[in-house]
Each structure stands twice: as C-alpha cells, then as structure tokens.
Design goal:
Layout: H1 2-12, H2 24-38, H3 48-77, E1 81-85, E2 89-92, H4 95-102, H5 105-115, H6 119-123, E3 129-131, H7 135-149, E4 154-159, E5 167-171, E6 174-178, E7 191-202, E8 205-211, E9 214-220, E10 223-235, E11 242-252, H8 258-262, H9 266-274, H10 294-318, H11 325-328, E12 329-334, H12 340-352, H13 357-367, E13 368-371, E14 382-384, H14 385-391, H15 393-414, H16 418-424, E15 427-428, E16 434-436, H17 437-444, E17 447-450, H18 453-463, H19 465-470, E18 475-477, H20 484-490, H21 493-503, H22 525-550, E19 559-564, H23 573-589, E20 601-606, H24 614-631, E21 640-645, H25 650-656, E22 662-665, H26 677-683, E23 687-690, H27 696-703, E24 709-710, H28 718-724, H29 732-742, H30 749-757, H31 768-787, H32 789-801, H33 808-820
Parallel strand pairs: 1-4, 1-12, 4-11, 12-13, 13-17, 17-18, 19-20, 19-22, 20-21, 22-23, 23-24
Antiparallel strand pairs: 2-3, 5-6, 7-10, 8-9, 10-11, 14-16, 15-16
The structure holds ligand CBF.
Amino acid sequence: GGGETSVRVERMFGLMDRFLKSDPSSLQKDILDHVEYTVARSRFSFDDFEAYQALAHSVRDRLIERWHDTQIHFKKKDPKRIYFLSLEFLMGRSLSNSVINLGIRDQYADALKELGFEFEVLAEQEGDAALGNGGLARLSACQMDSLATMDYPAWGYGLRYQYGLFRQVILDGYQHEQPDYWLNFGNPWEIERVHVTYPVKFYGTVEDENFNGGKRKVWLPGEMVEAVAYDNPIPGHGTRNTITLRLWAAKPSDQIDMESFNTGDYINAVVNRQRAETISSVLYPDDRSYQGKELRLKQQYFFVSASLQDIIRRFKDSHSNFDDFPEKVALQLNDTHPSLAIAEVMRVLVDEEHLDWNRAWGIVCKIFSFTTHTVLPEGLEKVPVDLLESLLPRHLQIIYDINFDYIEELKKKIGLDYDRLSRMSIVEDGAVKSIRMANLAIVCSHTVNGVSRVHSELLKTRVFKDFYELWPHKFDYKTNGVTQRRWIVVSNPSLSALISKWLGTEAWIRDVDLLAGLQEQAANVDLHEEWRMVRKVNKMRLAEYIEAMSGIKVSVNAMFDVQIKRIHEYKRQLLNILGIIHRYDCIKNMEKSDRTKVVPRVCIIGGKAAPGYEIAKKIIKLCNAVAEKINNDPDVGDLLKLVFIPDYNVSVAELVIPGADLSQHISTAGHEASGTGNMKFLMNGCLLLATEDGSTVEIIEEIGEDNMFLFGAKMHEVPALRVKGPTLKVPLQFASVVRMVRDGYFGFQDYFESLCDKVEGGNDFYLLGYDFQSYLEAQAAADKAFVDQEKWTRMSILSTAGSGRFSSDRTIEEYAEKTWGIEPCKCPF
Ligand code: CBF
C-alpha cells in the first residue's frame, strides 16, 4: 500500500536528496534533457522558443515537487481550508514569477548564459494566460500569490477557457477582436489530471419520490458533461508552500448518448458529444453587463458543481459528519458569478446526503462569504427564471424555498412593507421574472465584503441599503491590494534591487510595510540620483517598445503620462483625450518663443473595449485619430505625442507601469469600486493624477494629497450635480475641444457625433464638462512639479514608501482573520 511505498521511497532517497538540485550545472542538464525528451529537439539545435519550453518544464518539475509536499502536508494537518471560487483569473506569464518565488532566478540566468541564452529573452517567449477581463481577474491572481506566500491552505477554482480574453488589433484606428487560442503551443504551467473528473448535469425534470415514509425530490437530468481538472501550481515566495489553482475543462461524458450510438447514428453522436466542450470554450469579454445568456449560466454551474464535488470529496475523505463542514471549509464567492454554489450545496446536502433542510441551511449560513466588486447596477447579475428553470430545475426550486423562508422571517422583522420586501426579495417580479444573484449571495453569506472603504460605504448607504439596515454585522470591506512580487520584483527588477540596497534588506518582498523605511531617505541626493537612473532605464525600455510597436519615436526626457485600463465611460478615457486636444490646441496657438516653456509629454493610453460596447470603441478610434494628427504635426514635435498601446494585457502592464512618470485614475467619483492599477503605479514610484474615488481615497491618506494631483467633483457632490445636469456651467475650453471633434478636425465627423452627444446638451452623465477645469489645473500642477526634478523624485520615493498598505498580503491577512477564520499551515523544510 501507500504506506509501504513511502517507506521505500524514504529509504531510496535521503530526505533532502530527493529535491532537484538548483546549481547551474544541474539546471543546465535538466534544461537540455527537456530539450531532448520533452520538446523532442536535438540538444545541439533548438531555438529560443524551444529553449523557453525546456526551461519552463525544468521549472515546472521544481514546482511539482513543492506542490506535492504542500498537498501532503495539508492532508496530514487537515486545517480549515479556503476555497476561492472565481470565474476569472488573469495570471499573465508564469516563468519569471515562478523562478523568483522559488528563489532560483539568478541560478537559471547563469545556467542559460553558458548555454548561450538570455533569461529575459526566453521569458519574452511566453504568452499571457488571459483567463479574465480586468481588475477582478487580476485581483484573484494577486490574491493567489499572497495566499501561497503566507502559507494559507487555499485552493483557487475556476474555468480553463480555451479562448482567453480576445486579442485587440487596431486597424485604421478601430478596434478589431481576434480569438486568443492561448493553448496553441501547449501550456507547461498546468498539469492535466485525467483521473480527477466529475460529471456535471443539466436540464431535465424534478420528480417526487417516496423516501423513508415521506417524499423527496429527485432531479432527473437531461444532459451530462465531464469536468476534467487542470492544476496550476502557485508557488509562494520564500516558502516551500505551493498551492493549487484548479481550472476545469468540459469534456463529453461517456455516460450520455449511448442511445444514439446504439441506434447507429455514429457520426451525429460524435458531433453532438463535441458540443459539451463549448462550455469551457470562451471567456465572456464583457465585464460590464450580464445578458442572461444560457452558455454563461452553464459555465457558472459547471465550474461550481465540479468544484463542490471536489471539495466535498476531500472533506469526506477524513470526515463523516457534515456538522464539521464549517470547521473545515470556507467558500469565497468572488462576485456573484459563483453564487449558484449556494443552491448547489443545499441540493447536495439535502438530496444526496439526505440532511434535513434546516440542518443543511444551518451549514450553508456558516460557510459562504461574498465579495462584490462593483457599484454599477448593470454589474449585478440577474438570471431569468425561465432560463434557470430549464437549465437547473432543482436549483430554481431550492432558491424559491430559500426565498420563501427568508421572506417569512423578513416579514417578522420589518413588517408588511411590501416595497421593501419586494426590493429585498431574491426573486424579482417584472417583465422578465429573474433571480437576483446578489440578493441570493447576501442572504446566504455570513459576510459581505466591499473592495475599498468608500465602496463599502456606497454598498451600505445605496446599493444594498435595505440589507445593511437589517444585518449591519454582515457588511465589511477589505481594501484590495496587489502583489509586490509581481508588480515590483518581477516587473521592475532594477527598482527592486535599488530598494533592497537602500533598505539594507530584501525582507520587504514578504513584509512590504518595510518600504516605509524609504521615507527617511526621501531627501537623500544619492538616492535621488540612483532612483532617477532606474526610472530612466525603464523609460528607455518602454520607448523602445513604443517604437517597435507603432513606429513612433518618443523622447525619454518627456513626461510619460499613462492611462491603461479597460475602456469605460465611467473611467473617462474621453476626459483624458479631450485634455490632450486642449494641450495640442494651446501649443498650436502659442507664440513659437513660448513653446520652450512647455513641458514635453508622451501620453500613453491602452485598454480593450468590450466587443459590443460601441461608445468605448469610438473612444479608441478618437484616441487614434487624435494621435494621427498630433504625432504628424511638425509644429508640435517632441512637445506632445499620443500613443495608443494595442492589446493591453498583464505583460504589457509589466512593461508600461515601471516606465510611467504620471498615471491617471480619473473615474467620476463614486464609480470605481476600488481600482488596483493605482496601487501598481504607486508601488513603482509613479505619481498619480486622480479623482477621489475607490481606493485612491485610502492612498491619499497614506501618502498625503501633496504627493499627488487630485481634482474633480467629490463623491457626495455627484448626485446633486447630476440633477442640475443641463444647467451646469461648463468651461469654454471644454466646449471648444468638443467642437473641434464635432467639426471633423480629426476626421470621421459623423462617426464621432454620438460620442460628442454623450458629453454635451445635458447628457454629460459622467461629468466630463464639470470636471474639465479642475482636470486641467491638476495637469498644470503636474507639469510644474515635473520641472522641479528634485521635488518630483521626492514625491516618487514617497509614493513607493507609502504603498505598503496596498499589498494583497495585507488584504489576504484581513480576509483570513476576519472573514474566513483560517490559519497558516506551513510545509516544513
Ligand atoms: O475588485 C477588483 C476590481 O474589480 C473591478 O475591476 C470589477 O470587475 N468589478 C472593479 O471595477 C474595480 O474597481 C476593482 O478594483
């Protein structure tokens, strides 16, 4: 048995000897072996991509070793585990992150050098794993890194989409979408677990069946597909702990369709089976609205059902009583997308494990926590009842039953206030009867977290006010964070080395509060010089990229001003572009002799628009049209350049963020739940030009408003300003830049008309006109500060020094202690 095997294994290898060695010659041998036996190329002839593949497999071997040890350790200790359910994980590249976390990057770099390869060049061969849309998905990835580093017994569960987020191609300035078939060249970072599979069922009917002298419900499904696990080991930094991100792929099940095979329609039977795979085929590219699509709901249930079967199987391996479930299991709902898990746990406990309803409900109420990431009403999912009834008939019954009990309880507490009861109901009666997934999640979770303090305030006072008044104790927030391992150490190695040198330690990589130690050096001239040098080298790297990608030459002496994020009206890329038009117009109209006073700028914008989001696509086109005009205007030269970076993704962010002097986070106050880009720029010593929105409010508290450029209407002013709408006074400059667009100064007059209509004539919902004046003032303040390089450098150092609070390590620690009730479980040696 297993016990004997492990004794034999221990005898064969001394405990430590079994670990793969990481000295350069062992690494070289491993890489060459992988070239020969895994990649199947001759060790005397292989190119950069093949070298990358071999290198990745050699790193993967080391990951697997640690990962096995971690899983064995968790099994032995049986701690309470956190299961992080998320439909999206935006992991980006894995190679550099893995070797840095394993502490063997330099060894690999040396080993490769002797073989004639550069580590950096090979790292560039890796494509991004883009299984997510934006902030929410990258947050999940950052949190996995922190969970591993801090030794928490955690599992991430999600979907292994065959097509990740679409690739953005810009043709004639317009966005075109191309499929991202990211698995084309294989994926060395995952391990296919052909034996870890679960059946997932859909459709069918629910029947009553006699049971123990009473009745019980039995779901007779009409379709079954198989979920196959793909495990992605996630290494912690400075620890042996390596946790699992388990992503599910859909495969046809052997158990269906026997009928059609037997009736002889072999070809059609095979073709029908292939349809099962579509469930995990494509990521929905809209992070804004949920359109009640059947495939989306199928994806949600598919990953929830497979994950819960896996979690319950693991629990049952060492426990027989479900009352212990809440002691061992915490389930995190990352937004509403996995909230069907609530009905699924009830179904499994009642229908399959035969617990009575109340006992099952008692368990459910203790295990779920829910984090919401939006304030926009269109971001709150509603599932049409008809759709749910056809796809998951038993789940709909369970949701109705939960709602019935809950509304009865509610009536006792709030009386027969029918308006409020109907607002708080899980079921929405309207033209299309729907299930409100957020209400389901709130009712059934013990904690509802926002992602920043002001977001939480908005949830309590507006979005979920009724619920807050009923259950104030449920509402909390954990301000988002990002991992400094990815966003400083991996993406900005020279800054990382500089920080370690000046702090005299690398300990900040795991204990980021130590960055505060830079504060006392913020005026040190030697540090200033080195800091500026590092920043300049990063700007040169970015300038090279810009030239290679767009042919535009930019001067590194100019201020690099960046806005990279999804394109949304509320994020106000349009405000940025209109500001650039104003700057352009000023330069054009000024005396030649005055142009020497202009602070040169390179404005960089990047981001994807959801394929069906017309206005966002027009914003991209406008940006490119304005860029075309400005960049080819000899009057302007190096004083102003505008670059649209296509196909913004994690690896592009890793290049752009370290090279930015100024970054813009300019959403209309009250619209960005948190924002995490601001934190990444902050860590890298980039100054922020921002509105007081989302997590920026907390950044201000950490670094002080003198160290950034703030502008715009405050959150509490926005509702009243909207009411005033058409009567608001808008500055002349605003009217004049919009007129330039309307009059076709940048071409495409008809195409841009609807865009201009969105911000004029009383339609300016996001208050671009109202905020324009103060935006220009903030930009002028940034120019002024940039001229004084000593001041700028001090502000930059203080930004990095004040970024400690925005590490995902802090966020995860708060979740672990306050929401999930879990403890670290560190793998020995
Ligand atoms: O919480 C992470 C991020 O999530 C979003 O991107 C989202 O998808 N809802 C929000 O828009 C961000 O504000 C937030 O930082």
